[in-house]
Amino acid sequence: MSVIASKEPAVTNLSRRFFLRDSGKATLSATAVALLVGCESMASTRQVAGNPSQDVDILNVALGLEHEAINAYQIGAESGLLTKEVVPTAVLFQSHHKEHRDALAATIQKLGGVPVDSKAQSEYAADLNAGSLKNQTDVLMLAAQLEKGAANAYLGVIPSFSDSALAQVAARLAADETMHWSLLASALGQPVPQMALSFGA
Q1: By residue range, what is the domain housing residue 70?
Q2: SS percent in the chain: helix, strand, coil, step 5
Q3: Is residue 113 one of the residues assigned to a domain?
Q4: 45-79 tens-digit pLDDT
């Protein structure tokens, strides 16, 4: 069993708890929702409800999770531990996270906020204990843990949104993360969860 299999990376765990806690306090405004779903015309006709600075804070926590995922896949791709057959899938998953990042950052900017910067890759490597990665299984297990954590974070915020459009966006993000986790778990030979409703609890 991998040395990282038994514990979730601390940075992801803390980020997810912060995301869930803060999103429960305040939902995004209608304007933020419209911008996030890419409908600027809808944003211009909606009344601003809520606090734009809270919108930015919530979106920046989500953006931080996407930065972490992007860097984790970069670390994995550059580790030399992945086979040439696996690298393209890791790069594909990373590209999904880059699209998430870009949508979140653009929304934050349109709300007048400043998107949180990505940390140096060396910081993510330390936070994720990348030095303990010894083989492809270790890398895939780390990726699976991050994907499952992100899926649960996005699912966890859905009930707090009064706007169905934002709930849909969060569900779509969670679906991407769940797809990634499912394929990684399959590649690792992990069994299909035996219980229904195994995500978002």
Answers
A1: 10-187
A2: 70, 0, 30
A3: yes
A4: 444 455 567 778 878 888 999 999 999 999 999 99
